[in-house]
Amino acid sequence: MRIIMAGFGTVGQGFAEVLHKKTDRLNRFNESVKIVAAFDSKSFVADENGLDPLELVERKKSTGSVGSEKLKSGIDVLDSVDYDVLVEVSPTNIKDGGAGLKHVEHALKNGKDVVTVNKGPLALKFSELNKLAEKKNALLRFEGSVGGAMPIINLCSENLKGERVKSIRGIFNGTCNFILSRMDKGLPFEQALKEAQQLGYAESDPSYDIDGIDTACKVVILANSIFRRNVTFSDVSITGITSVSAEAIALAAEHDMVIRLIGEVSDTVLEVSPRLIPLGHPLSVSGTLNIAQIRTDLAGPITVSGKGAGRIETASAILSDLIAIMDRRR
Ligand SMILES: NC(=O)c1ccc[n+]([C@@H]2O[C@H](COP(=O)([O-])OP(=O)(O)OC[C@H]3O[C@@H](n4cnc5c(N)ncnc54)[C@H](OP(=O)(O)O)[C@@H]3O)[C@@H](O)[C@H]2O)c1
Predict the structure, then answer these.
(1) pTM of this prediction?
(2) Where do the CATH 3.30.360.10 domains begin and end in the chain?
(3) How open is the CA angle 136-219-164, to the nearest 5 degrees?
(4) Which residues are catalytic?
(5) Position in ligand 1 atom list of the atom nearest CA 317
(6) Fewer Cβ within 10 Å of end Cβ, the chain: N or C?
(7) pLDDT tens column, 139-187
């Protein structure tokens, strides 16, 4: 299994480390798994015999570049190296899908399997990409794009195959949940946001999280992949958390409630908004955890929770998708 990695930041490096760590487990598939090329925003490196994942991480950390060659475009790398799977972990771009969309489209067009956690291509062009994958007999997997390490997409589409999933409601953004949890303790929004930034949970431009955009991307991915809807980012009704006041939080607390940013999806609903959640309810979690309640017709409600971000945690979801592809291709 020959892998090309597009993007070598937090998640890309985490995935390289995980590949190294899980060599023995992967060897059980009687097929060697190797990275044959990797590129970041400016550089690339390729070797058909396989690159040492830890050396890539070391070089990226010490020089800021994954490779010594100057990158013209990611597409050039995809065209010049023989590979089986593209692991796409470049930045999410929700305006036009950015380079990530081009990489994913190009790989699928050439019949290559793709594992991605990049939400841009999926939130904007899910149905086109899926159709392309089907046409080219390629596999497109994206477990880590929603909830990071928390299993939800493959759980619903593989483990709960016989169920009709009626709805999914959940907390899909750890940054917002951290901020709201700190506001529960009496911190004003601005201070809670500052704390989240200092701890590395929030970006210097936090709008992607606090305006509900990140959660909306995830809701779209769930709607398309689990509910077989044909929706895109612009179809989501989105309210972020900037309008949640200290007064609203205090009033909620007086009634034994908390306010949480909830993403909800069903056959008819596609919404992101702050909601009142009774204390003790599974969705009243505090901190950066992600959690989802899946309502099904036979199994009843199922709740899953896990780390929604983190380099190794997110890489674990990529690894599980990669192994699923190896299983299918054997
Ligand atoms: N971080 C998480 O826990 C997490 C969880 C779930 C999903 N995700 C998703 O995973 C993806 C990667 O996240 P991250 O945290 O690893 O981001 P990151 O640390 O910013 O890394 C992004 C990587 O992509 C590279 N890149 C930028 N433009 C590129 C281009 N045109 N072609 C190829 N590579 C390019 C960057 O290159 P340089 O290094 O040269 O800048 C960097 O190596 C994002 O789509 C994110 O939404 C992340």
Answers:
(1) 0.97
(2) 156-307
(3) 75
(4) 218
(5) 6
(6) C
(7) 999 999 999 999 999 999 999 999 999 999 999 999 999 999 999 999 9
